[in-house]
Amino acid sequence: MRARRWFCFFICTGVLPGCFFLPRGFDEQHARNRAAGERYNLPLPELPEEPDLESLLEYAWRANGEVRAAWNEWVAAVERVRDAAGYPNTNLHLGLEAMWAGKRPGWNDVTISAGNDPMTNLALPPKIAAAARVALEQARAAEANFHARRLAVRERVASTFFQWIGLHERAEIAHRRAAWLEQLELSERARFSSGAGSQEVWLAGQNARLEAENQARNLLVEAENLRRELNGLLGRAADAPLRPPREPVRGRSWPGNLEEFRAQLRAGNPELAGLRAEVAARERTLHAAQLQFLPDVNPMGAITGDVSQVAGLAFVLPLTWRKLQAQVASARALVDASRAVLRQAEADREAEVAAGLAVLENVERQQRLWTESLLPNWQLRCQSVRRAYEAGTQSLGEWVQAELARLAAEEALVELQTLREQQLVRLETLLGLPGEGGFSATQEASHAAR
Predict the structure, then answer these.
(1) Against a cut of 0.85, is the pTM above it?
(2) Whole-angstrom distance, CA of residue 44 vs CA of residue 144
(3) Pairing of strands 19-20, 86-87
(4) How far apart, in whole angstroms, are the C-alpha atoms of residue 234 and residue 318?
(5) Domain spans of the chain?
(6) Is 309 helix (H, G, I), strand (E, B) or coil?
(7) Smallest Cα–Cα separation from 37: which of 61, 59, 56, 57?
(8) What CATH number does the domain located at 2-87+123-293+305-440 have?
(9) Residue range 367-416, pLDDT digits in tens
């Protein structure tokens, strides 16, 4: 009976310690991962034929393959933390030996041994905990990559969306330009038929009208291509129906403070968060490499019937000192390399934010110039020339030229509006602002930054 108790003790010591040395912060990481994946278990929302930007983004985040792949990579990284934290890190090895000499062996001639797998040493718990902390930092880097992918898709969708709307508006302006030129062409043709005008002026008007119609068609073709690109980003068929909204939201407000932008850049940019996690992972890797100088321990035990019981420990001492020193030096160099990359990335992103802010301010200055001065002046000129034409003191050609100048001012304003929205989207991506609303929404720190 005593021998059987020893045997059960050996089995339990090999099987029961199936536990985890999970590092602090794993539960929060796992909870964020599951919360981010809940949307993928729901059916895709129905997309209206005239969607706004928020509807497109919500659809894209759930349907886009790159975002879904980034989430799956994050899931895999979280599971690798469990894998690295599992203990013991080796399997149970059971041995059975029988010894006899010319007689039938009995219970006291049988030796049962238990120990770890002889091909794998049993690592000390601090080594397992260090490997788990490395895996946790890598999971945080995968989380940052997921948020970076989401923001990159947001930037592509939003930038394409605003450009798509701008092309439709410019095409409508081109159609109006062609209509004015057609009136002028008909007038010049009538004058030429009556002998009061020249064929050269008539043909010049006809060419201008044809060029305006051609520009309108070209803009519509570009808009159709952008519609197909939008559908591709949404994971839909290229020719799926999609029409621009009749009243797109523009003129979003933004806090024009460079210092606030710099603070938000450090806290919210997922690229920088991923690089910080990489630095932390390599620092943990350095610590794990230093722990390799500690010995491993291989426990063992055996019983031989009711005759004897044996328990022992075998210490595996590292003799490859130069190899371990090289591994530590290599890990330390990689830490320095990651820190250098992080410093450069922070400088690059700060410079990009400052440059983007300068471009945005210049675009808004031009917008004010066109909306407050140039466009109103052209509108007043059109009204003045129209009254003069109705009074018979100005020609139709002068009225048409004034209207064409006004339409050119409207087109320039549309291009500035598109450029402003695209620049805002780029700044939102750099600052890691939440996708739903961007500058218009309440700013919250991203999980990756934490």
Answers:
(1) no
(2) 24
(3) antiparallel
(4) 55
(5) 2-87+123-293+305-440
(6) strand
(7) 61
(8) 1.20.1600.10
(9) 999 999 999 999 999 999 889 988 888 888 888 889 999 999 999 999 99
